[in-house]
Queue: 2 jobs
Job 1
Amino acid sequence: MSNITLLSIIVFLPALSTLLLAFIPKDKVEVIRFFTLIVTLVVLAITVGAFIAGGGFQYQGEEAKYMQYAFNEGWIPSFNIEYLMGMDGISFPLIMLTAFVSVLAMGASWSITKHVKGYCILFLLLLTGMLGVFLALDFFLFYVFWEVMLLPMYFLIGVWGGPRREYAAIKFFLYTLLGSVLMLIAILMIYFNSDLVGLYQISDAGGGNAVKWQTLNVSETVTNSITAELESRKESGYEPQPIHSFNLLALAALGQHAEAVHDAQPVGPESDPEKYACYLSSNLQWWAFLLLFIGFAVKVPSVPVHTWLPDAHVEAPTPISMILAGILLKMGGYGIIRICYPICPHGGYELMWFVCAIGVVSMVYGAFAALAQKDFKRMVAYSSVSHMGYVVLGLGVWSATAGTLYNPDYWNMGVKGAMFQMIGHGVSSAGMFFMVGVVYDRVHHRDLDKFGGLFGKMLVYTALSIGVFFAGLGLPGLCGFIGEVFVVLSVWRFSPLLAVISAGVVILTAGYILWAVQRVYLGAEYKGPHEEALVPSTFRERLIAGVLLVFAILFGVVPHQTVLKYMDATIDRQVDELASWTQHQDILAAEAEAKKQREEATEPTSIVAPLETSTSVNAPTANLLVRTGSTE
Amino acid sequence: MEKDLHQIVDHLIRDTKGDAGALWDWAANSSLALFAPELILCVAIVLLLLLRLFRAGQLVPPSMVAFLGALASLYFASPWTALRGEFSQGYELFTGMLVYDSLTIYMRGILLLFAVMFIVFTRLSGIPDKEDGADIYSLVLGATLGMCLMASANHLLMVFMALEMASVPSYVLAGLMKGRRVGSEAALKYSVYGAGAAGVMLYGISLVAGVLNTVHLPTMATVLGSRIAAGLPGEEQMVLALGGLMIGVGLAFKLSAVPFHFWCPDVFEGATAEVNAFLSVASKAAALALLLRVVLGFGTLAPDRLSPGVALPAAPAQVDTAWEADELHRFVSVMHHPGHDELTPELAPAASDLGPVRSFAGKLIAFIAVITCTFGNLAAYGQTNIKRLLAYSTIAHAGYMMMAVPAVLAMAESNPSGAEHAVAGLALYIFVYVFMNLGAFVIVAFLRNAIRSEQIADYAGLIRRSPGIVICLSLILFSLVGLPPLAGFLGKFAIFASLLEGWQTTGQGYLMALLVVGGLNTAISLFYYLRVVKVMAMDPEPEERTPFEFPDVSLQGAYVWLLTLPTILLMLNWNGINELCRQAATQLLRG
């Protein structure tokens, strides 16, 4: 099967199956539910079958560093928008997580009894949006999928949610839309300042050595028009026409080689040499990074734009909470790692303290807020804010600076920790929300103070719950531990203070989770509302919780074999590239400084100084060469 | 003027009907031939009025005559082939009164397509009764004719005439429901406002004409440019600016731009949803085209245009015709510019001379667009009547669409291809807007027929009764918000992209400000559109609601889907329509 068929089927199968679903009469509730469940299972089967069982997804060697299964078809040539998708070590685990959690969430959807048909249609549309976000490599396509999720989510919360569902739904919608409007502005800024012609000249296809053209998946047509443009420029003097692009990979290369691209471009007329300058300048990257980061931080969610999350979670029905916490939040993290850092390294570099501070504040604030909650689900929701703070922090610890001789290892660890945290949290938070949902379905309240003693009435359920909550707590041997410890360790090199704070959050986490476990499951026999309804868990519930717990244990015990090995190569490459970008940037800055000094100098003696500077900046280069040589 | 009368008449004949000898033999590129769609509309109007004089004619339903007339007109306009363009330059028709270029073709296509859809819509909703039919359809076609003229006006007199031709039938249409007080009130308000705005505009035209000695837009730009280059005295600047502002008042009234929007919500509430659809779509589209014509007419030097009736340059060149074309050109310019016999070459201005005009107009329009857009969105919050809500939404959308114009003006000289893309963005927005807004009013009209109410609160729980219509209206409303993958996003994206391109290539900060305002407005507009959706989809159905029938499987339902599907499916491949829009923009700018 060709790449385009495979990935298109994965993304659009759920959406297309809604057309079939529309023809099932709405009173055949069981048929509709099973049909939807089968669709999610088919998606899971295709992803597992094609990528893991069939050994299709490469995680070792040169291939694993770059996009796999990539294809590029033209879509809207007049805006250079392409139907471009692909998968690498960053998106692959998230795709698997999406397929996996959606099956479980659909399994948990048997508790939905109102308008089942509408629910299932929206659920499948949501699934298409989520898969599309993780697979899209064209910025425009990414944005479309990003927004496609909004509508189903709004209705899923607003129609099937709790008492304040309408408020929660519109809050969710509004926050995300505000974020995505900022993102749209950033997308347009980046698009109109991108120039593939300049990039082509510094790539191996155009005779340079900075970029491997093949890895960018630029379509044949565009490559041809680039060469035609260069040809006509050569023949007719110049009238340079930049070729803009939405290709995320090309944009990343443009962002990381902005100065080289700028140098490769012809200059404009003498009166206005900057006229044709069309590159991702550092100023532009700073702004674009900020706008994009805010857009993604809304989704993560980070303090202070997190307030939609507790409301949305509390009001959303259980399966939608599972999707929301398990997958939707990961899109924010994914956006940061896939878009913010590679495309706008300048912004990331200059704003690293801002990003890390946001991460740490989210962790601390989320943990304290969770401690203060009386509502079980709200507590779990705030724990998500806290846990996703680790993701932001892990992505932001840019410790590969001059101070560490551009050693990317710690940052690498942080990014891997963040990625692992996303996967681990996807499992544990989905599990926690499911567990809350199970008991809510029975007693119809979530007041932590009115619980207690569930242990006596629902033995299996309690055992599974405690396992899942411990996974959320970050107990060693369970999935929450690996991500947290990676992030905390990586922060040491960046800032011991932040490391101490983030390590301290682990204690707070243990505090609120253990306290909740104590108040809900332990203690005297339950005497609260709807006491009679506390029947033991059903097979379906045990199955879902059991599967989640098994994966939580698997990820905790064998993290490398289950998760990390798939993402290693890609993350290594990305972080190494950014580390050498940092170094290159410092060299450029030093050279500029030296040049300035040389120009200022009037006495011949001062020529010595710039020479010294240039030798001293060469030292780290040599160092890096040795280091990369030894690791490969 | 040493011109032989015979020669002048000869020129006029050639200009009107081409080189051909026989009376009924028109050259393919004569004014009359290129004006054929409008002529067909005229014929249809006359037929509508005459048919009921005869007994046999009374049997013919007026809607059928109007429909066939509009369809024939659309067929002759044939934008889909005409835009593929066998000619690369525009024509000046009727000695420069009108301009026939790709934008004319595009806008005329949109307006006539809308007219066809609109007539089908009125037929389905059954608003004109048997006696009224002929009157109403002749008014609709008359207004459409005026709008087509608005889109192709090249002369300030023509601007005024076209504006009135489009407005006067609209005043009557607003009072369509005889015997309803609100309808009459709406019509009266509309016509009083309209008359005021028209008077102000006419005064403005006379001021500008007095200073520049001409009302032919391209000539005005040339004169203005050379005057500015020579140094314009302060008082003349004052008069020109005042005249320009007054012309702007007339345009702003038509666009319902703040602060000339007051008529809009009242008229929309009083008039029927059908008329609202007509006013909010066709009239707005034509007004935008006219705005573009006027600001580009004043702010840029018009590209060279062909004279009608003369063999195309592509044909084997004849010295004779070339000379004749030249002669005709001179004749036209003398007609419009009696003060100077000919513009001496040293007086010919450069495009940069008009820079201040563009900058003034661009900033003014940007300011008004920001206010219009923000005000429309904020005022829509408190509305309880769906028609009033859509009226404010129309105002807001006029603001979004006006945002393209400053981008066009900013890039007109330094980055003509960017300016063309901005025009194309506006054209794309208009195309999408036709389907979205017509769809919204169609559903409002059908629901009014079914539940006899236009209050948003009465839509509660509609999804239980007619899910199809609720899904369609929700999609249309989300499309109006501008959420991908619905078509409304495409228009917004194209205009926002042009704003950013303008900011990037010219460094004009206010374009970026426009973009930010547009983006924030998109977010705040979500609230009120979403409220309607929420009422329909989430609120419980009122118990006392009288039972009503609105089957999803019906002609009405099919029509609604026909309008909704483009908003969903356009995303899949909008390259074709985008190419057409870009084509539409190619003949507006010089160079």
Job 2
Amino acid sequence: MTEAGHLTTADIGDVPGPVLGDDARALARRIVAKYPTPRSALVPLLYLVQSEAGWVPRKGMREVAELLGLTTAEVEAVATFYTMLKLHPCGRYVLSICTNPSCALRGGKRLFERAHELLGEDCEHVTADGVFTLEEEECLAACDTAPVVALNYVFYNRVTEEALESMIEAVRAGRVPEASRGGVPGELREVSRTLAGLTGRLPEGAEAERA
Amino acid sequence: MPEFEPVLTARWADPAAATMDGYLAGGGYRGLAKALDMSPAEVIEVVKTSGLRGRGGAGFPTGTKWSFIPQNTGKPVYVVANFDESEPGTFNNRELMERDPHQFLEGLIICSYAVNCRTAFVYCRGEFVWPGTVLERAVAEAYERGYLGAKVAGSDYALDVVVHRGAGAYICGEETALLESLEGYRGQPRLRPPFPAVEGLYRSPTVINNVETLSCVPHILDRGPAWFASIGTEKSSGPGVFSISGKVERPGNYEAPMGTTARDLIAMAGGVTDGKALKAFTPGGSSTPFLTAQHLDTPMDFDSVAAAGSLLGTKAVIVLDERDCVVDAVLRFTQFYAHESCGKCTPCREGTWWMTRVLGRMARGQGTMQDIDLMRDVGQNMLFKAFCALADGAVSPIDSSIKYFRDEYEEHVRLGRCPFVEPGEETAAAAVAAPPAHELALGEVLG
């Protein structure tokens, strides 16, 4: 960390021990077996890393590279392309607020500014209590319920400033409110398991060993 | 409007429709049974006859697309459903999946059968955590009940469906970028030809269809192509789910025959908010040129909207009313394109970024009259100069807003501020950090 509080390359990748343990590696083999070619599993495996570490440290990229027979640079090139793969330590809840016109016309921009005020200066990195990472989001394809706010990409409809304030307070107190659809969102690690494909159909037994 | 009975959204009010039992009770998987009684070529012919055109934006005839798949290459054939819905203002795929996932899945199975595909993929937008889970449940149910796997619906046809989650990149809705992403690369578009029908996923023949397109297919098989073609217009047949958002009383998805006018669609959404006058609307998402009140009676079909100077796109109507600042909305759209440009092609990567700078100073009241022409000039250097249509989409709101609302840009210059905000009040545009001085200087060099 620099004096200004910025992460350096020494911080990134500095996580103790392997990111993917034996259980995670067994899951990784099953994820790979879903696809005709192993490389298709690259993003799902980075989500698996995120589900273990809470973000995607360089060490995790190296481990994925080894699993898929790629170089770390090839993995990093992909990891840096996608915004849902977090390349720095993140809050347990990613709070996304859409400010694209369909939401902005209905108060999205004001909501984002309010969230920024409430969460403080570093909130687009991670809040001091480690709870939130705030993101100004592009269109979430839910303009029927604008303005849209999401916690770990699970959507809340027509959020007012008051609702946003009480949502932030509740999450800080460990009482995550139920989303408009999809129940109570889990922490980023848990949602990353879903994104890795672990809640969907995974090859089993001999089929999984193919990889 | 003539009598119209909803087709794609008919089951939306019934929460059970999202389950296999609920779907079967409503006549689900009947279209698949009929398809499996035909040869694949016959199924393609039925879809061709229906006149169905792709709902993902380009409007290409679906049956024709399927007929392009060569069957003698010795390679497997793939079908990829594009569920990476992210065009600003578009949200019909999301709701079609949340409320009726088997309708989509049945269409995917029929399409796969028609082109002789054994492994189909669904590329699900990463941010669709919940809609993706609804889809995964439907896929699991379809395996359990024998609609997927070794013997689809008791036939000798075998099909597997793989759900793949994206990771946050608008560009992956572009079909070749989607394929790159699904193969485990950065989502950057490929040069065409070869087209995906010849060399798509893993360099194999591939069909890529939108979720709404595939959702139409079971109905075409079940009720016949003539019935489908009797809905909508001659060249844009069938029903469509229109996403209406922005300044309307009840934003939402509204199903209507293709060719319904924007006026009727906005009326379905309760009209413009607070009874205000409409200023502008996009017919098909942010990438389609703005239209204005004079175009409200344009039928929303592929050809009529094109004749009016815009594109039907994804049938996503974003409404701005008389109180809304066009420059501000265009700035936000442009920031979107700058953020989502994949960076592969220089005109797009640089053009979108410079446009945010010029539009930013314009929105803050620091622009000049020359900036208006500068933006048109930059736009001309972006249009049709990149591998994919993202840059073209980025130019659409800028060019069309200058065409219809040049006076509004000029007003920003004359007043030295946004005319829609009282002096001292902050605009959304003002919240955008002013660029460092050296960038402004470069902007002047560009001019």
